[in-house]
Amino acid sequence: MDPKKLSLAKKLKTKHPEKFNMVIGFDGFIDEIIHVVDKRLDSEQFTRIDTIELYAKRIEKASGLSTNIELVTVQKKIGGNGPIMCNALAKHQSNIQYIGALGVPTIDDVFSNMASNVKLHSIATFGHTDALEFDDGKILMGKMTTLNDVTYENLIQTVGKEQLLDMLSQTDLFATVNWSMLPHMTELWKKLISHILPLLPKKDKKPILFVDLADPEKREQIEIQEALNLLKLFKSHFFVVLGLNKKEAYDVANELDLFDNESLVNMQISLEDLNEALCENIDVDELVIHPVDRSCVFVKGKFYEELGPYVSKPKLTTGAGDNFNAGFVLGLMLGLSPDEALLTGMSTSGYYVRNAESPSFAQLIDFLEEWGNDLI
Q: CATH code at 164?
């Protein structure tokens, strides 16, 4: 039995997430969740390749030759960091404006099925992801040239400057995610800072700005540094939170030359040292890192870490990080302590990977109670 988790579940029963306003953007994908066939048994039955390592060996054997790999789509769903995070937060009945690549001139039917408490604004055509799922991770293969149209100009043309100002003036959360796949996101941030930020009211309790880079490995070092340098400029009007998974955290630390290369490549730097160095170097208000089996956060000079409800055979892993982000920022908006927000984030992702859907607020509380009673 864990009194901390049970106490948090009890506390959440007094909270009202439906009162929050949120603005989330700016990507949009249609995802196909795919299993890779190992052996075909008959027209319906097959065994799958369970791990990325085995898949890599299958590909390696074809070097200099050729091979045929069968992919089976097991689910077609809304994709993209923004829509998945939005869907998770929408389960709590908050008022959400989603701005992103959902289809032009009309929004694709896949996105039209998003919750009724989400108002959609489409500024570009969506990308497409083949998500190859394995027990030890996933390989995301994206087609995303349409995301070149996610620009400040298309944002203003579609939403309107006055309406955008109204949204951001009233919001409790502004989430801008998937920077790495949006080529013009840095320029969009610059124009928000110069054209929109000065017109926003300053509040005693700042709304949260949550940023997720989403695996920046393919971007050049100078691009990563330029984007990260912009985040501190939002602090005049927002409480700025940067979220990274474990791989992204070590990659960003390497790009910023915070530790020696060998220690970073071998992941020998402790999460605490890594988290503190990143937060202080990038100069954000809070920095959260979520490995598979735990999560940690550095805020106001203090480090917090919590272990997660790990599951060896998840039903769905694509979107787990976005669900963690949704649960974590929900915890922050609800006024929870940093460690409680970590638990709320991991409960959201823990429920998601077990059930292939995000939890409602009641289901989130139930999951915490079961976890606290050692039933998970």
A: 3.40.1190.20
Q: Is 54 part of a structural domain of the chain?
A: no
- 362 located within any domain: yes
d(CA 205, CA 241): 15
CA angle 178, 180, 181 (to 5 degrees): 75
Q: Domain total for the chain?
A: 1
What whole-number distance in Å separates Cα of residue 151 and Cα of residue 324?
A: 27
**Exposure on the CB side of residue 198, measured as CA atoms within 13 A:** 4
Can you point out the beta strands (E) in 111-222?
Answer: 118-124, 127-134, 137-143, 173-177, 208-212
Gap between the Cα atoms of 52 and 54, Å rounded: 5
In a domain, 184, yes or no: yes
User: Which structural domain, as residue segments, surrounds residue 93?
Assistant: 3-35+79-372
273-314 residue pLDDT tens? 999 999 999 999 999 999 989 999 999 999 999 999 988 889
Closest by Cα among 366, 348, 343 to 358: 348
* Residues with Cβ within 8 Å of residue 222, at least 6 apart in sequence: none
Q: Find residue 138's DSSP bridge partners.
A: 133
Classified as helix, coil or strand, 31 is strand
Phi, psi of 104 (to 5 degrees): -140, 135
